[in-house]
Amino acid sequence: MLKWFQRVGRRGFLHMEAGFNAVFGPRLNPLYHLGALTFLFFWVVIASGIYLYIFFETSIEGAYDSVEYLTYEQWYLGGIMRSLHRYASDAMVLTMMLHLLREFTLDRYRGFRWFSWITGVPLIWLVFASGINGYWLVWDKLAQYVAVTTAEWIDWLPLFNEPMARNFLNEAAISSRFFSLLQFLHIGIPLFLLLLSWVHIKRISRPRVNPPRGLMVGTLASLVVLSLLAPAVSQGRANLDQVASVIQLDWFYLAVYPLFDIWSYGGVWILLGGITLLLALMPWLPRRHPEPVAVVDLDNCNGCGRCFADCPFGAVVMQPRTDSQPFAQEALVAADLCASCGICVGACPTASPFRRTSDLVPGVDLPQLTIREIREKTLAAAAKLSGDDRVIVYGCDFGADLGRLEERGVAVLALPCIAALPPSFLDFVITRKHVDGVFLTGCREGDCYYRLGIEWTQERIGGKRDPYLRKRVPRERIDMFWAGPDRSNQLAQKLDEFRGKLRELGPYTKPRSSHPEGDSRWNDKGVRNVTDRME
Amino acid sequence: MTYGGVYNAKWLRYIAQAALYGLFIAVLGYFSVSPAYVHLPPDQALIKLSFSHPGQPKGGCRERTDEELARLPPNMRIRVVCPRERSPVFIELEMDGRLLYRDTLIPSGLSRDGTSTVYRRFPVAAGRHHLRARLRDDVQVEGFNYVREADITLKPAQVFVVDFNAKSGGFIFK
Ligand code: HEM
Ligand code: SF4
Ligand code: SF4
User: Fold this and answer.
1) B6, B16, B159 member nearest A243 (Cβ)
2) Which of A132, A256, A389, A458 is the most exposed place for a label (fewest CB within 10 A)?
3) Domains and CATH numbers, chain A
4) Model confidence band, residue B1 (pLDDT cutoffs 50, 70, 90)
């Protein structure tokens, strides 16, 4: 059942994402930035909330009038702030729910991701509590409905002796004290939400908390447009002597409220409690089979810290040396955080195919696909090729099906993540003439399953990130296409074009001034020392 | 890089982006207030029965026997004991001769010495009704020790509260 839902959802997301990619391009694709967008909306809510609070009258008699003042007399600023506060809150629910669905359907919630998922669950309750609490403060008809219904709902739990709903029996019963408590909560709950959001992303290194500029500008502008077109307004002053019979509900926050009139309050508690429990247990229903994690080999680790810098999940820590080697630090992998992506291996300067196979053990390696195996498989696959357009395609487990490409007469090798491939491999296979060109593929750009793999690969090859691909490697013999799982045809087409280009280029010839010292521009001292020693 | 032939022209992509932003704010704007929800049909009113009332002590006070006293620690040797447990409150609400609600409200607290509480809503047709509320808060009493009846006229959407306060003489209709 869960699996079926996941499959359908996955297909849906992939289709939607393809559409959004066509319009926004992968860099600005909002579906790739749902968590960051939720944060953006949260900031808007906080900023506009602070402004509203300055003018908000905190008594039950004055609250409604002060909000009316903001809405009508001060429409140009207060009114817009109110609308932004409302719509950004709504948008938060929308993007949060999509974020949840997406992480679920793309299977990004189990295994090493359990922590992000588990800490996400209480965020849902806090977001809803903040929003519902906020509606209460306006003290209009909607507030009245929310107040009475929520109080009755909470009263179902055996918490209070005196039912909370008795505070809202009629106009005579209402107390300002209770109202002050609600305002206090409306600051307290969002603050707690902020704290927990921070915990939520704590284990992710370089979390994308801000959407890219273009997306941010477009999103904020459209919120302002909406605020001008359809300003948020109140629904008439609350009057507890009269039932608020017809209400304009905010369905983002209050969609379950109609259930209260159909089911019992207890039924809704059980439903929501059940959903929460299910969400909380999901990372273990069933559990992802844990793969062997990255292993450090101290004899080969020089403590350079590149694995630490590149690990997308903060699973590598650098600690003081525990052996007698003359380096200050050594790498250590925290097994419970490790995603087995191999990106650290791709970052390790000792993972170089130029080293002799017999002693090719890098500072950090994946037991399920070691660097030595990658080297052997690369050579074996390349050896089968012939002609003047010999290409090896490196891909990943989450991208296009490489088996179909193999039929087209290229060598293929699937890695856990494309960034698990050290750039020196490109150097090796091209300058040693094992192939005429290298083609890299993987997830969709902007949506790497292991978060940072595509970015790191592009930066390493572009000479912007350590370990750099050496300058002597002709870049026209390298091509990439981030096909994702759904663009096999385009991938094949790109590959054909690339091979055409290679045929025109002819075989690789060593440039005359190819002394390694000549390309110091890409190499800092550390790398050169290491690579020189290895060559 | 280009993504799909249709959108090659930059301006076409901008138009498509504007359309998607438009869709986004349309969804936000619409579901933020619509569709309207009818919580109570327009021809109905609401009777709320709610009070919080401590019932009478369940039994009378009695004197401890000498043996009982001797068994207690010296600082607790008080002769007269009054049971803390209170009577449950029995409540009945009728409208136009039809029973709306009948229940026995157990006092709160582990030793059942707290208040008996009720909070109930009854949507009823607006218009004229005869309402009768009866209550017994003492197990030693037969029948009801508080009764109130009244003819009431409920406007649509009106909230009519049936409260109870022994100090002000029993049921409060308002
Ligand atoms: C206030 C609400 C939320 C905010 C602001 C938020 C924000 C974020 C952000 C910024 C990231 C990092 C994304 C990245 O850099 O790749 C993230 C990751 C994640 N979120 Fe949320 N989130 C929220 C609610 C939730 C909920 C309700 C769930 C699910 C129950 C959830 C599940 C996850 C998971 C599983 C990840 C890990 C993704 C990965 O490791 O690639 N989040 N969230
Ligand atoms: S395999 Fe991936 S998650 Fe594990 S330590 Fe290496 S880079 Fe980090
Ligand atoms: S990248 Fe390799 S050599 Fe550098 S610290 Fe990590 S394991 Fe050690």
Assistant:
1) B159
2) A256
3) 33-281 (1.20.810.10), 295-505 (no CATH)
4) very low
